[in-house]
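Archive transcription. Copying these from loose printouts into the bound notebook so they stop getting lost. Printout 1 of 2:
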Amino acid sequence: MLILALDTSTDVGSVAIGDGNAVVAASTLPARGAHSESMLPAIRDLLTKADVAIGHLEGVAVGSGPGSFTGLRVGAALAKGLCFARRLPLYAYSSLSAVVAGVSVEGGACAMFDARGGRVFAATYASTVPLVDLAAPRVWTVPDLLAELKPLDAWTFGGDGAVRHEGLIVAAGGRLLPEDHSRPRAEALLHLVRERPEGRVGDVRGWQPEYLLPSAAERISDRRVLR
């Protein structure tokens, strides 16, 4: 099954095309944080590079967050638009799982995204090949998360939140994935489509990303209401 996968949950987006067990083509978005401008051209370029006509796609996989509110909205709109236009199935998976899925590690794995204000989005996994969930994505302060996972020498960390807090993690005994694996990868979403077909979305129209935190506009609105 020929699948287009995309993730826009962090500053560095990615897109990939896969067929069965093989990744046909993949690329990282060249512009940081400008997914609304760069994702659609990146998809077109990748289809051309892979010599795949858009009409040959058989499904779309998208990173469902958590992460950047604006980035997630861009990715969701593109994925849903393609599915509606081409009558394709939509598959959605946690963007945190797209950091570690298919990457062999010893012990448990924790994927972390920076959520600002000293917080991270994090999820934990007992295994990455195959992916076995431990704790679903939620918002943590870094000290609380590290205290929850002691002893840290049993854990491997990935994601931009892990890179940002590398000093604390390593000092406590944790390991980090190589930096080129510390972002959600569209290729990993292709892996998850094969491993977890139950990720297919039943109601594409009603599906929304997993934001976990309100947008900046919503926070400002709430403050105004409380005054």
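Printout 2 of 2:
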Amino acid sequence: MDEVLLRQALEFGKPYTGKGEVASYIPELSKADGRELGICVKTIDGEELHCGYWQRRFTIQSISKAINLAMALEHHGFDAVFLKTNMEPSGASFNAMSRISDSEDIPFNPLVNSGAIAIVELLVPLGLEYMLSAVRGLCGDKYITVDEDVFHSEWSHSARNRSLAYLLQSKGLINGDVDETLRLYTQLCSLSVTAESLANLGQLLANGGVQPETGRRLLKEEVVRTTLTMMLTCGMYDGSGEFAVRVGLPSKSGVGGGILSVVPGEMGIGVYGPSLDRKGNSVAGQKVLEYISRREKLHILDRYAQRTVPTEQN
């Protein structure tokens, strides 16, 4: 991959910025410019490529769910985490009430709102400052902080998430203070990042949890494997199946316009494009990733398709 390809991918994606809309259900997010588009790539060998609005700050939103999952797995282990949520794609929108009901004891997965809120309760004892420090380290970005304007906008429009949280409490999946859990969840969604921050996180995940520059292990290998698997199957909301077919990379999107993608063993990719489709995914960002995946044959199944099949000997 080189900068020429990156510019080509960005030009390919630009026309699609007009085919979606910025998030408006959180009023502060509606201020984003839907025409903006940027990308950053970090390889595990230390190469960095970038183009467009790759340094624009935006809020991480649902991409935080992947980090929260990894942190919960690190601190509490696989069994404790998956007592609170299943591991299955939901097939419905990320904030759907139907994903946990009287007939469904726990949320479908940790990347829908109900599952993510349940997971965050495990992180409440760590506190915001610890989590903020951890995210800065994982993303290689010391300037990450809570965007207070977005947080207050989101907190004041959190009736649906509040309903989910109390439903989780009624099922014994939140045992502590609901407001405390929901507040931390919302703060973590309101962290300001860039496409470069996401690429740094992707680079770390691509390298199995080891920071390439320092050789320091930040996440256990099994934590990375579980997190990437959930991203592949559930990371793009109810568009995860089509995205897996078209792009084929473990990815996580957020309604702030970001997409984190990982090419295991090779690179991390961060994309920013706040114009969203009806499922909450960056319209142009998906097209940029599809272009790169096809041109570079990055789909996780491409490596198998390219294997030479031995010819039969007569």
